[in-house]
Protein backbone atom coordinates (compact mmCIF):
# COMPACT_ATOMS: atom_id res chain seq x y z
CA UNK A 1 0.00 0.00 0.00
CA UNK A 2 1.27 3.44 -0.80
CA UNK A 3 3.59 2.03 -3.47
CA UNK A 4 3.02 2.97 -7.07
CA UNK A 5 4.10 1.12 -10.19
CA UNK A 6 4.78 2.98 -13.41
CA UNK A 7 4.25 1.20 -16.71
CA UNK A 8 4.55 2.50 -20.24
CA UNK A 9 1.84 2.76 -22.83
CA UNK A 10 0.33 -0.59 -23.91
CA UNK A 11 2.07 -2.40 -21.04
CA UNK A 12 5.58 -2.18 -22.47
CA UNK A 13 8.48 -1.39 -20.20
CA UNK A 14 10.26 1.88 -20.78
CA UNK A 15 13.57 0.04 -20.66
CA UNK A 16 12.78 -1.91 -23.85
CA UNK A 17 15.10 -0.91 -26.68
CA UNK A 18 13.64 0.87 -29.63
CA UNK A 19 13.45 -1.31 -32.76
CA UNK A 20 14.56 1.65 -34.85
CA UNK A 21 17.55 2.26 -32.62
CA UNK A 22 18.41 -1.41 -32.76
CA UNK A 23 18.31 -1.34 -36.54
CA UNK A 24 20.64 1.65 -36.61
CA UNK A 25 23.18 0.12 -34.25
CA UNK A 26 25.50 -1.38 -36.91
CA UNK A 27 25.96 2.08 -38.47
CA UNK A 28 27.68 3.68 -35.48
CA UNK A 29 30.31 2.52 -33.05
CA UNK A 30 28.91 1.61 -29.59
CA UNK A 31 30.22 3.51 -26.61
CA UNK A 32 32.60 1.54 -24.37
CA UNK A 33 30.91 0.17 -21.26
CA UNK A 34 33.92 -1.32 -19.46
CA UNK A 35 34.81 0.80 -16.42
CA UNK A 36 38.37 2.11 -16.45
CA UNK A 37 40.84 0.15 -14.36
CA UNK A 38 43.26 1.81 -12.00
CA UNK A 39 47.02 1.58 -11.87
CA UNK A 40 49.65 1.11 -14.55
CA UNK A 41 48.17 -2.17 -15.77
CA UNK A 42 44.76 -0.55 -16.04
CA UNK A 43 46.14 2.29 -18.11
CA UNK A 44 47.86 -0.15 -20.44
CA UNK A 45 44.67 -2.19 -20.83
CA UNK A 46 42.66 0.96 -21.46
CA UNK A 47 45.18 2.07 -24.08
CA UNK A 48 45.02 -1.36 -25.75
CA UNK A 49 41.23 -1.26 -25.80
CA UNK A 50 41.27 2.19 -27.36
CA UNK A 51 43.65 1.02 -30.10
CA UNK A 52 41.36 -1.91 -30.91
CA UNK A 53 38.26 0.26 -31.24
CA UNK A 54 37.32 1.60 -34.68
CA UNK A 55 38.07 5.29 -34.93
CA UNK A 56 37.91 8.00 -37.53
CA UNK A 57 41.13 7.99 -39.62
CA UNK A 58 43.21 11.14 -39.99
CA UNK A 59 44.14 12.08 -43.54
CA UNK A 60 47.69 13.30 -42.90
CA UNK A 61 48.50 10.23 -40.81
CA UNK A 62 47.15 7.82 -43.43
CA UNK A 63 49.09 9.43 -46.26
CA UNK A 64 52.29 9.31 -44.23
CA UNK A 65 51.65 5.73 -43.06
CA UNK A 66 50.95 4.38 -46.55
CA UNK A 67 53.95 6.18 -48.07
CA UNK A 68 56.36 4.96 -45.38
CA UNK A 69 54.91 1.44 -45.43
CA UNK A 70 55.28 1.08 -49.20
CA UNK A 71 58.80 2.46 -49.04
CA UNK A 72 59.70 -0.13 -46.38
CA UNK A 73 57.99 -2.88 -48.38
CA UNK A 74 59.98 -2.02 -51.51
CA UNK A 75 63.19 -1.71 -49.49
CA UNK A 76 62.78 -5.10 -47.82
CA UNK A 77 61.53 -6.85 -50.97
CA UNK A 78 64.45 -5.62 -53.04
CA UNK A 79 66.94 -6.27 -50.23
CA UNK A 80 66.06 -9.98 -50.22
CA UNK A 81 68.88 -11.84 -52.00
CA UNK A 82 67.79 -12.71 -55.51
CA UNK A 83 69.25 -16.24 -55.27
CA UNK A 84 68.89 -16.68 -59.01
CA UNK A 85 69.98 -20.32 -59.17
CA UNK A 86 67.57 -21.37 -56.41
CA UNK A 87 64.76 -19.29 -57.92
CA UNK A 88 65.18 -21.03 -61.27
CA UNK A 89 65.22 -24.47 -59.63
CA UNK A 90 62.02 -23.61 -57.77
CA UNK A 91 60.41 -22.46 -61.02
CA UNK A 92 61.30 -25.78 -62.67
CA UNK A 93 59.74 -27.62 -59.71
CA UNK A 94 56.54 -25.53 -59.86
CA UNK A 95 56.25 -26.11 -63.60
CA UNK A 96 56.75 -29.86 -63.16
CA UNK A 97 54.20 -29.97 -60.35
CA UNK A 98 51.60 -28.20 -62.50
CA UNK A 99 52.28 -30.63 -65.35
CA UNK A 100 51.77 -33.59 -63.02
CA UNK A 101 48.43 -32.08 -62.01
CA UNK A 102 47.47 -31.56 -65.65
CA UNK A 103 47.08 -27.83 -65.03
CA UNK A 104 50.13 -26.38 -66.77
CA UNK A 105 48.16 -24.03 -69.02
CA UNK A 106 50.24 -20.85 -68.59
CA UNK A 107 52.31 -21.36 -71.76
CA UNK A 108 49.23 -21.89 -73.94
CA UNK A 109 47.56 -18.73 -72.59
CA UNK A 110 50.80 -16.77 -72.95
CA UNK A 111 51.18 -17.63 -76.65
CA UNK A 112 47.49 -17.18 -77.47
CA UNK A 113 47.22 -13.69 -75.99
CA UNK A 114 50.59 -12.60 -77.37
CA UNK A 115 49.27 -13.25 -80.89
CA UNK A 116 46.91 -10.26 -80.44
CA UNK A 117 49.27 -7.31 -80.12
CA UNK A 118 46.83 -4.69 -78.81
CA UNK A 119 45.53 -7.14 -76.21
CA UNK A 120 48.89 -8.19 -74.80
CA UNK A 121 50.17 -4.59 -74.75
CA UNK A 122 47.04 -3.57 -72.85
CA UNK A 123 47.63 -6.37 -70.38
CA UNK A 124 51.25 -5.30 -69.91
CA UNK A 125 50.13 -1.81 -68.92
CA UNK A 126 47.32 -3.27 -66.81
CA UNK A 127 49.94 -5.28 -64.90
CA UNK A 128 52.22 -2.28 -64.47
CA UNK A 129 49.65 0.31 -63.35
CA UNK A 130 46.30 -0.92 -62.00
CA UNK A 131 48.03 -2.83 -59.22
CA UNK A 132 48.65 0.54 -57.56
CA UNK A 133 45.86 2.73 -58.97
CA UNK A 134 42.93 0.52 -57.96
CA UNK A 135 44.36 -0.27 -54.52
CA UNK A 136 44.84 3.42 -53.71
CA UNK A 137 41.39 4.17 -55.09
CA UNK A 138 39.76 1.63 -52.79
CA UNK A 139 41.63 3.06 -49.79
CA UNK A 140 40.38 6.56 -50.63
CA UNK A 141 36.82 5.26 -51.03
CA UNK A 142 37.01 3.53 -47.65
CA UNK A 143 38.40 6.65 -46.02
CA UNK A 144 35.54 8.80 -47.28
CA UNK A 145 32.55 6.45 -47.21
CA UNK A 146 33.40 3.82 -44.57
CA UNK A 147 35.66 5.47 -41.98
CA UNK A 148 34.64 3.02 -39.24
CA UNK A 149 35.84 0.08 -41.36
CA UNK A 150 38.88 1.77 -42.84
CA UNK A 151 41.51 0.82 -40.23
CA UNK A 152 40.47 -2.84 -40.06
CA UNK A 153 40.44 -3.19 -43.86
CA UNK A 154 43.79 -1.42 -44.12
CA UNK A 155 45.20 -3.83 -41.52
CA UNK A 156 44.18 -6.72 -43.78
CA UNK A 157 46.20 -5.20 -46.62
CA UNK A 158 49.24 -4.49 -44.44
CA UNK A 159 49.29 -7.95 -42.84
CA UNK A 160 48.90 -9.58 -46.26
CA UNK A 161 51.86 -7.65 -47.64
CA UNK A 162 54.02 -8.29 -44.58
CA UNK A 163 53.65 -12.06 -44.72
CA UNK A 164 54.34 -11.95 -48.47
CA UNK A 165 57.79 -10.54 -47.70
CA UNK A 166 58.50 -13.66 -45.69
CA UNK A 167 57.55 -15.75 -48.71
CA UNK A 168 59.94 -13.83 -50.96
CA UNK A 169 62.78 -14.58 -48.56
CA UNK A 170 62.00 -18.24 -47.88
CA UNK A 171 60.99 -19.25 -51.39
CA UNK A 172 62.68 -17.29 -54.19
CA UNK A 173 60.92 -18.02 -57.46
CA UNK A 174 61.59 -16.98 -61.03
CA UNK A 175 58.57 -15.94 -63.10
CA UNK A 176 57.80 -18.12 -66.13
CA UNK A 177 59.18 -15.51 -68.55
CA UNK A 178 62.67 -15.85 -66.98
CA UNK A 179 62.82 -19.65 -66.93
CA UNK A 180 65.68 -21.40 -68.71
CA UNK A 181 64.73 -23.80 -71.47
CA UNK A 182 61.03 -22.95 -71.36
CA UNK A 183 59.00 -21.63 -74.26
CA UNK A 184 57.43 -18.66 -72.54
CA UNK A 185 57.36 -15.26 -74.25
CA UNK A 186 58.62 -12.29 -72.24
CA UNK A 187 55.87 -9.93 -73.38
CA UNK A 188 57.31 -6.95 -71.50
CA UNK A 189 60.62 -7.07 -73.37
CA UNK A 190 59.06 -8.08 -76.68
CA UNK A 191 56.63 -5.15 -76.77
CA UNK A 192 58.85 -2.72 -74.83
CA UNK A 193 56.25 -1.83 -72.20
CA UNK A 194 57.20 1.46 -70.59
CA UNK A 195 56.93 1.78 -66.82
CA UNK A 196 57.04 -1.90 -65.96
CA UNK A 197 59.35 -2.89 -63.12
CA UNK A 198 60.58 -5.69 -65.38
CA UNK A 199 61.71 -3.53 -68.29
CA UNK A 200 64.62 -1.22 -69.06
CA UNK A 201 66.42 0.29 -66.09
CA UNK A 202 63.45 -0.46 -63.82
CA UNK A 203 64.37 -4.14 -63.68
CA UNK A 204 67.53 -3.22 -61.76
CA UNK A 205 65.38 -1.50 -59.10
CA UNK A 206 63.24 -4.53 -58.20
CA UNK A 207 63.77 -8.15 -57.24
CA UNK A 208 62.95 -10.12 -60.38
CA UNK A 209 62.87 -13.43 -58.49
CA UNK A 210 60.09 -12.65 -56.00
CA UNK A 211 57.12 -14.24 -57.79
CA UNK A 212 55.75 -16.30 -54.88
CA UNK A 213 53.30 -15.21 -53.55
CA UNK A 214 51.65 -12.97 -56.13
CA UNK A 215 50.70 -9.66 -54.55
CA UNK A 216 48.94 -8.71 -57.76
CA UNK A 217 46.41 -11.36 -56.77
CA UNK A 218 46.62 -10.60 -53.04
CA UNK A 219 45.93 -6.89 -53.52
CA UNK A 220 43.36 -7.28 -56.33
CA UNK A 221 41.41 -9.86 -54.34
CA UNK A 222 41.51 -7.53 -51.32
CA UNK A 223 40.05 -4.78 -53.52
CA UNK A 224 37.44 -7.07 -55.01
CA UNK A 225 36.21 -8.51 -51.71
CA UNK A 226 36.11 -5.07 -50.10
CA UNK A 227 34.03 -3.62 -52.91
CA UNK A 228 31.73 -6.64 -53.01
CA UNK A 229 31.14 -6.55 -49.24
CA UNK A 230 30.61 -2.80 -48.86
CA UNK A 231 29.35 -1.36 -52.15
CA UNK A 232 25.61 -0.86 -52.47
CA UNK A 233 25.37 -0.65 -56.27
CA UNK A 234 25.04 -4.11 -57.93
CA UNK A 235 27.25 -3.10 -60.86
CA UNK A 236 30.04 -2.08 -58.47
CA UNK A 237 29.84 -5.41 -56.66
CA UNK A 238 30.06 -7.26 -59.97
CA UNK A 239 33.11 -5.21 -60.98
CA UNK A 240 34.63 -6.03 -57.60
CA UNK A 241 34.47 -9.74 -58.40
CA UNK A 242 35.64 -9.30 -61.99
CA UNK A 243 38.76 -7.33 -61.05
CA UNK A 244 40.77 -10.17 -59.37
CA UNK A 245 39.51 -12.60 -62.02
CA UNK A 246 40.86 -10.44 -64.82
CA UNK A 247 44.07 -9.89 -62.86
CA UNK A 248 44.61 -13.67 -62.73
CA UNK A 249 44.28 -13.83 -66.52
CA UNK A 250 46.75 -10.94 -66.91
CA UNK A 251 49.49 -12.35 -64.66
CA UNK A 252 49.33 -15.67 -66.51
CA UNK A 253 49.10 -14.22 -70.03
CA UNK A 254 52.09 -11.92 -69.47
CA UNK A 255 54.12 -14.84 -68.03
CA UNK A 256 54.79 -12.93 -64.82
CA UNK A 257 53.36 -15.65 -62.56
CA UNK A 258 52.32 -19.26 -62.35
CA UNK A 259 48.75 -19.85 -61.24
CA UNK A 260 50.19 -21.41 -58.07
CA UNK A 261 51.64 -17.98 -57.24
CA UNK A 262 48.03 -16.77 -57.16
CA UNK A 263 47.19 -19.48 -54.63
CA UNK A 264 50.04 -18.16 -52.49
CA UNK A 265 48.60 -14.64 -52.73
CA UNK A 266 45.19 -15.91 -51.61
CA UNK A 267 46.78 -17.66 -48.62
CA UNK A 268 48.50 -14.42 -47.61
CA UNK A 269 45.19 -12.56 -47.86
CA UNK A 270 43.50 -15.16 -45.65
CA UNK A 271 46.23 -14.54 -43.08
CA UNK A 272 45.58 -10.79 -43.32
CA UNK A 273 41.87 -11.24 -42.65
CA UNK A 274 42.66 -13.50 -39.69
CA UNK A 275 44.94 -10.85 -38.15
CA UNK A 276 42.29 -8.16 -38.56
CA UNK A 277 39.61 -10.46 -37.12
CA UNK A 278 41.69 -11.19 -34.02
CA UNK A 279 42.62 -7.54 -33.44
CA UNK A 280 39.22 -5.92 -33.98
CA UNK A 281 37.04 -8.84 -32.91
CA UNK A 282 35.11 -8.87 -36.20
CA UNK A 283 35.68 -8.90 -39.93
CA UNK A 284 35.93 -5.39 -41.41
CA UNK A 285 32.53 -5.39 -43.12
CA UNK A 286 30.81 -6.21 -39.80
CA UNK A 287 32.24 -3.17 -38.03
CA UNK A 288 30.24 0.08 -37.79
CA UNK A 289 30.28 2.24 -40.89
CA UNK A 290 30.48 5.59 -39.07
CA UNK A 291 32.47 6.31 -35.92
CA UNK A 292 32.58 9.35 -33.62
CA UNK A 293 35.36 11.88 -33.97
CA UNK A 294 37.88 12.47 -31.20
CA UNK A 295 35.33 14.55 -29.27
CA UNK A 296 32.92 11.64 -29.26
CA UNK A 297 30.30 12.89 -31.71
CA UNK A 298 29.40 12.31 -35.31
CA UNK A 299 29.65 15.11 -37.79
CA UNK A 300 26.34 16.73 -38.64
CA UNK A 301 26.32 15.32 -42.17
CA UNK A 302 26.87 11.74 -41.00
CA UNK A 303 24.45 12.04 -38.12
CA UNK A 304 21.73 13.32 -40.45
CA UNK A 305 21.96 10.11 -42.47
CA UNK A 306 21.22 7.91 -39.46
CA UNK A 307 17.62 7.16 -38.40
CA UNK A 308 16.47 8.88 -35.22
CA UNK A 309 15.75 6.44 -32.38
CA UNK A 310 12.08 6.18 -31.42
CA UNK A 311 12.89 7.08 -27.82
CA UNK A 312 14.37 10.40 -28.93
CA UNK A 313 11.55 12.95 -29.45
CA UNK A 314 11.55 15.16 -32.49
CA UNK A 315 12.42 18.67 -31.29
CA UNK A 316 9.43 21.00 -31.39
CA UNK A 317 9.77 24.65 -32.28
CA UNK A 318 8.54 26.87 -29.43
CA UNK A 319 5.88 29.47 -30.35
CA UNK A 320 7.07 33.03 -30.50
CA UNK A 321 5.92 35.17 -27.55
CA UNK A 322 3.05 37.49 -28.27
CA UNK A 323 3.59 41.21 -28.06
CA UNK A 324 1.08 43.72 -26.84
CA UNK A 325 0.54 45.09 -30.32
CA UNK A 326 -0.08 41.68 -31.82
CA UNK A 327 -2.93 40.70 -29.48
CA UNK A 328 -6.32 40.52 -31.10
CA UNK A 329 -9.07 42.68 -29.54
TrEMBL record:
The chain crosses the membrane at residues 59-76, 125-143, 155-171, 209-231, 238-256. Residues 19-31 have a biased composition (Low complexity). It is found in: Membrane. One of its GO terms (cellular component) is membrane. The keyword Transmembrane helix applies. Pfam families: PAP2_3 (PF14378). Residues 93-274 form the Inositolphosphotransferase Aur1/Ipt1 domain. It is a multi-pass membrane protein. The keyword Hydrolase does not apply. Keywords: Membrane, Transmembrane, Transmembrane helix. Residues 1-41, 304-329 are annotated as: Disordered. Coiled coil: none annotated. InterPro entries: Aur1/Ipt1, IPC_Synthase-Related. Its main location: membrane. This is Phosphatase PAP2 family protein. It comes from Streptomyces anulatus.
Amino acid sequence: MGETQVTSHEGRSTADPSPIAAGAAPETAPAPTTPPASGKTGRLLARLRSLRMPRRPRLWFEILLIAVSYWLYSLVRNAVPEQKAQALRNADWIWSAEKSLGLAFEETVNHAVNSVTWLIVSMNYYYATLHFVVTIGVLVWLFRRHPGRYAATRLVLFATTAVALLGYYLYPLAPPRLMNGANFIDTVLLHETWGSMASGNFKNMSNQYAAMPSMHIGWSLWCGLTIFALASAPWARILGLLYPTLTLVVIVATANHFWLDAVGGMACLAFGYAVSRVWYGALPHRLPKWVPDRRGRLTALRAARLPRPASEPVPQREPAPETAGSRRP
